[in-house]
Amino acid sequence: MALTRICYGDSHWKLAEAHVNLAKGYLQLKGMSLQAKQHAEKAKEILTSSIVPPYNDNTDVFKCSVELFHTLGQALLSLQKYPFASSLYR
Question: What SS3 state is found at 22?
Answer without folding.
Answer: helix
